Amino acid sequence: MRSYPATVSSLIHHCTFSVLRRTLSLRSPATVTTPMANGSTTATEDSLRRALADKQSTIDARGSAIRQLKSSGASKSEIDEAVKALNNLKLEKTSIENQLKASISGDSGTSRDAFRQAVVNTLERRLFYIPSFKIYRGVAGLYDYGPPGCAVKSNVLAFWRQHFVLEEDMLEVDCPCVTPEVVLKASGHVDKFTDLMVKDEKTGNCYRADHLLKDYCKDKLENDLAMSADKAAELKHVLAVLDDLSGEQLGAKIKEYGIVAPDTKNPLSDPYPFNLMFQTQIGPSGASTGYMRPETAQGIFVNFKDLYYYNGNKLPFAAAQIGQAFRNEISPRQGLLRVREFTLAEIEHFVDPDDKSHPKYSEVKDLKFLMFPRDEQMSGQSAKVLCLGEAVSKGIVNNQTLAYFIGRVYLFLTRLGIDEKRLRFRQHLPNEMAHYAADCWDAEIESSYGWIECVGIADRSAYDLRAHTDKSNVALVAQEKFAAPKEVEKLVITPSKKELGLAFKGSQKMVAEALEAMDEKEAMDMKAALETKGEVQFEVCTLEKTVAIKKNMVSISKEIKKEHQRTFTPSVIEPSFGIGRIIYCLYEHSFYMRPSKAGDEQLNVFRFPPLVAPIKCTVFPLVQNQQYEEVAKQISRSLTAAGISNKKDITGTSIGKRYARTDELGVPFAVTVDSTSSVTIRERDSKDQIRVNVDEVAAVIKDVSEGRCKWNDILQKYPAHTSASADE
Amino acid sequence: MRSYPATVSSLIHHCTFSVLRRTLSLRSPATVTTPMANGSTTATEDSLRRALADKQSTIDARGSAIRQLKSSGASKSEIDEAVKALNNLKLEKTSIENQLKASISGDSGTSRDAFRQAVVNTLERRLFYIPSFKIYRGVAGLYDYGPPGCAVKSNVLAFWRQHFVLEEDMLEVDCPCVTPEVVLKASGHVDKFTDLMVKDEKTGNCYRADHLLKDYCKDKLENDLAMSADKAAELKHVLAVLDDLSGEQLGAKIKEYGIVAPDTKNPLSDPYPFNLMFQTQIGPSGASTGYMRPETAQGIFVNFKDLYYYNGNKLPFAAAQIGQAFRNEISPRQGLLRVREFTLAEIEHFVDPDDKSHPKYSEVKDLKFLMFPRDEQMSGQSAKVLCLGEAVSKGIVNNQTLAYFIGRVYLFLTRLGIDEKRLRFRQHLPNEMAHYAADCWDAEIESSYGWIECVGIADRSAYDLRAHTDKSNVALVAQEKFAAPKEVEKLVITPSKKELGLAFKGSQKMVAEALEAMDEKEAMDMKAALETKGEVQFEVCTLEKTVAIKKNMVSISKEIKKEHQRTFTPSVIEPSFGIGRIIYCLYEHSFYMRPSKAGDEQLNVFRFPPLVAPIKCTVFPLVQNQQYEEVAKQISRSLTAAGISNKKDITGTSIGKRYARTDELGVPFAVTVDSTSSVTIRERDSKDQIRVNVDEVAAVIKDVSEGRCKWNDILQKYPAHTSASADE
To answer: What is the distance in angstroms between the Cα of B128 and the nearest Cα belonging to chain A?
Structure first.
């Protein structure tokens, strides 16, 4: 006998770990998919491990044969021959070991690290980002965006607002980060938003239990070449199921493998849950606990009623929020990818659960891109290019609205400059999803760290609104008014106050409520039983006992009623964007190196599209000369007035060096003032140069920066600059 | 004998309370200037109180005279006559009481409250803002911005970026809110960022001590009409000096006046300081205390070195940051004006202390607006219109750079729509400023709450960079390279290690350091004394004793040295914007009511300039009709593609109601589709209507929304719409 709210709270208790870390950085191995999840390299590695083990046993056998030869007094030539053969075997073994090493780390392993180092060095040197509070030796997991990084972020967010909020008519809200406990109690974060932690038993240093186990397995697999193929398979299995291990299972593995604290080699505690929210006190009394929000979504859910009203009490509609979120990670790693404070952009699209069609679905249904459905993952295949519309019609993607957002996210990311060949949409496996979720897809972007979850797109059904309805006693529901009233068969349960009062006295009310809360099947069963037996046993949860219900105590019937509207809890489809992760992946996808003109050094370039570029244009006089500087200033002023970010460079450095500097910031256009009437505009990647009149420059740069025309159009409209000036 | 770092830390200890609440909401009475600070209403009130007291004593005297008449057996007519005269006196007294009441509350008092209520009702009903977490009964001092409020905020911030960051070439940064303790220890916030609090001794409820005293005084002054003019003057004096009272003084006044807890009438504790920062723990160990930043400025200061390098090691330059800040107010009041989490936009302009000129000063020096210099405040005058350039040349404003920012802030606020007649720049009084600050001006905007500090513009000298240099041991300094080396007379102090060692053994090092730390005057005095007397007494702080220094222990001389550069700590000029306060004042300045066409109701309008308006344009078909709806959709799509926020209204409501709805959101333009070829565009405030072809609509609205042309230009270009359609 459970009333409706009790059902909701049981949902919370059943929900899995991953669901509560719902928006991003759900779980580390899921976010950085390991190669073997694709079932690619495993075969070779296995056979090499077996070959190595075979070779080793041959070597061992030959070794003991030689010892026998020696002890049996065999001839020197005979022994020499045997030793020579053994040495050849050893050489073969070394060769297999090298192949195995290469197979494990992947040929690309070292080049990937080197590439990352080149990108990160450039980013930090040019202040795209830097560790926060550096002069005080910093804080792990906190980063500052310097001027170019801040401009990139601001451009990405402006485009997000245009692409989602404006084009989809979303209701944007802006809620505080400080959140009272009750809200996060309702959402489940207070109880379940945890990672498993172990402590160094002597120093008290803390580690994530899964990280330690993961590091141990990876290290063994990479460096212990003599390990048997079976043992290797076991460690790989541990890596594959790492997310699903309970605290006890993690603890048992840590004990079994003898894993100790990495810094001190001290023994470790058993794993225990650590809540990842930053806790604080609201107000001076110390009686009101609050947390820094771990996601922005709850601010939208608690406002559902007002937003629904603002939207004219009509569904579907979407609300959106951009803001800071906070997670007190146990030991942050991977630079900008796992941080303690980050910017989220979240959309909650509220829809009738009985109608998840989308009016603009036809605009995305013909899009084709890399998708990685559940079945392909389970059967060890890899992601493949699918047509979105077909994925919906085949039932791979649950509904049109979910598909619409997948399509819009694809367009958003690729327009920012994410390489579509390194972008895939991966469906959650059943064990990654809460039982109430209808479907869930992550936009994953491949970087030097592997495939990174950057956007989660989930159909979360009615879970969140129900949780807050339950906790707040404010009904977060929608109504559909029928065009004509509908006749509906309704269950009517009418307890008799008089009879219940006589039988149960003070407990009357609770018995009556329990009777009224019965669902249809329970009620009809009771009706049948009362009619045949006249009395039934009935469990009243709130009394914690079973009572006898007699026929005269309750009337149960089905009646035909006219209904003018239906009331329901909307489903929510939630695209949630980790802005910092998208930006980091964009940096990697935009970075390349090319030789300088003299060929004596490699120069760094970010190929940001103008939309994203932190500065749209640099302006420099070809030589230090007051007239040219005046023209440069005038152009810069007209660009600024047009809202185009630009930078003057009036240093006396060579024009080649100045181009290199501006390329390294990803500035798409450079204006070189080499006369007072017309100037040269150079495009970053092609290095094409055209001549444009001084008074047209701002308009040309504005058009091409804001996407109203392409560089190629401009290239055809204006004369090329082909002078022999020593410009690069 | 103090070494350099000791000097810096002594600066921190001397700095006043107000300086640490540096950016905004420094102190409540300062932010809401009380009328009497201008010395305006006081005179009338005083004379009325005196007249009332006179009248009362006349009444008392007459009363006892009548009693004497009665007891002395006077005639009935004589007594009746005296009673009649007494009743007249009582009527006169009531009249004076009413005058006094009116004088205290001000005639405008009630209309101000009514106006505020009308604005706030509209704002909350249309979801400009709402109390956060309303379904859980909210949290004091936390507010959500709903869709229109969020759009206004986003427009204000975009304009701020254009007006300051882009036009002034500032370096924008984005730092985390979570801040380690060491940073805020260095800035002084950990020790001094406090308000004085008292507790209900029985329930533990907390109150701001100054608020209770203020409320008591105001209540007495308003309601105790019989209070003597002297007593009234005393209470007014308390209100005037409230900010300067120490905890003990506040406590003494609370005791003297018998002030108790307002809710329970229980006795109160003595006042004690409560730190206003939200505290938390960073990481899982519990060993690393952090705070939610109370301002964004510190993130810029700690990055000074990198930013200076990014700027090519050149001064001046400015860094800027927009972000959330947090203050755990004891008992927030005044709606959006005093909140626990808010958006700050801060600029730190770093400049050579020896040269505070500004290259663009000439662009602002002719601006004229309301200024309220220190002298005018102290002598009881009011703010007056001054020319900014004259204020600088007369020494009223300390320097050009400070004046430049005052001028830019004036332009920023008035372009947003702040009424320049209700905007003044108030200079800080000496007791409001730290001793190290060179000058400080607040942009104050008049609202129904009084004059509100919305932007603080302070020349903070080298204080902040020195504080972090001291704490971090990283020199946050700049260099000026001389064109030619300069000859400088330098003091050279050379302690003799040998002689000091013989005399002071283990204390040798500390004595030597103390000698080296002498300033020029001390050193030259010592040199003279040693030459005449051969020995001097010298206090060594670090040893806490005085030692005897002999002539052979130290050599002191002045030498001429060549210097190629000078190293110095830059001064910082800081304009700091409370975005939420500016927006709230903007709401009040933009709000008005006008009668509906039928004259039967008052309609609300926000006269936002297009720059600020949350939605630039509404589009509606004149009648419900598929053709018109198609045209409306097409126009809406073209507006969206042009980045112009717009809203369709296809409800069947009357066109007048739809105009009223859109006026109440401050939408400047409404497009009514009344044909399929051309449509009507209506301007909100003038209600002017013009006819524009369907395919030109988006371009016209975009031009006028983005300020490329004015409505009046458009009005002349297109035919007026004067049809008799019942549109309003």
So the answer is: 9
Q: What is the 3-state secondary structure of A203-270?
A: CCCEEEHHHHHHHHHHHHHHHCCCCCHHHHHHHHHHHHHHHHCCHHHHHHHHHHCCCCCCCCCCCECC
* Tokens 């002890």, located at residue: A71
Kindly state the tokens that stand for A215.
């590091």
Please identify which residue in the block is written with the tokens 């397995």: A217
pLDDT of B643 > 50? The answer is yes
Q: Quote the CA–CA distance of B251 and B124 in Å, as a whole number.
A: 38
Query: pLDDT tens, A123-166?
Result: 999 999 999 999 999 999 999 999 999 999 999 999 999 999 99
pLDDT tens-place string over residues B533-576: 989 999 887 788 888 999 999 999 988 888 899 999 999 999 99
Could you report the predicted ipTM of this complex, rounded to two decimals? 0.84
SS3 category, B107: helix
- Sign of the CA dihedral with B115 first, then B116, B117, and B118 last: positive
CATH class assigned to A615-717: alpha beta
Question: Span A398-414, mean pLDDT?
Answer: 97
Question: In 3-state terms, what secondary structure has residue B220?
Answer: helix
Query: B484-565: which CATH architecture?
Result: 2-Layer Sandwich (3.30)
Q: Do A306 and B178 touch (CB under 8 A)?
A: no
Q: Is A658 on the interface with B (CB under 8 A)?
A: no
A383 versus A286: the higher-pLDDT residue is A383
Which helix or strand (DSSP H or E) is residue A32 part of? none
pLDDT at A718 (0 to 100)? 92
- Interchain CB contact of A178 with B (< 8 Å): yes
**Per-residue pLDDT at B228:** 85
CA A273, A296, A12, A37 dihedral sign is negative
**Cα B308 from chain centre:** 28
Chain B CB within 8 Å of residue A471 CB = yes
The CATH architecture to which A42-105 belongs is Orthogonal Bundle (1.10)
Name the average pLDDT for chain B. 88
Q: Per the structure block, which two tokens stand in for B15?
A: 């700095």
Give the least confident one: B368-372, B568-572, B710-714. B710-714
The residue whose two tokens read 């020995």 is B535
Ramachandran angles phi, psi of A451, nearest 5°: -85, 120
B158: pLDDT confidence band, cut at 50, 70 and 90?
Answer: very high
Instruction: List Cβ neighbours of B341 (8 Å cut-off, separation of 6 or more).
Output: A176, A177, A178, B141, B142, B324, B325, B326, B327
Task: Give me the sheet containing B194-199, strands edge to edge.
Answer: B206-208, B194-199, B272-275
Q: CA of B458 to nearest chain A CA: how many angstroms apart?
A: 23
- CATH class entry, domain A480-568: alpha beta
Please identify among residues 362-421 of chain B the ones whose CB lies closer than 8 Å to any CB of chain A. none
pLDDT bucket at A43, cuts 50 / 70 / 90: low
Is the model more confident about B15 or about A710?
A710
Tokens representing B36 are 């009497």
Contacts of B480 (CB under 8 A, 6+ apart): B315, B352, B565, B566, B568
Sheet (strand A646-648) strand order = A646-648, A617-621, A669-673, A678-683, A689-693
pLDDT value of position B319: 98
Q: What is the mean pLDDT of chain A?
A: 88
Task: Yes or no: say if B443 and B409 are a contact pair by the CB < 8 Å rule.
Answer: yes
| Residue B146 with chain A: CB contacts under 8 Å | 171, 173, 303, 306-307, 310
**Domain locations in chain B?**
42-105, 484-565, 615-717
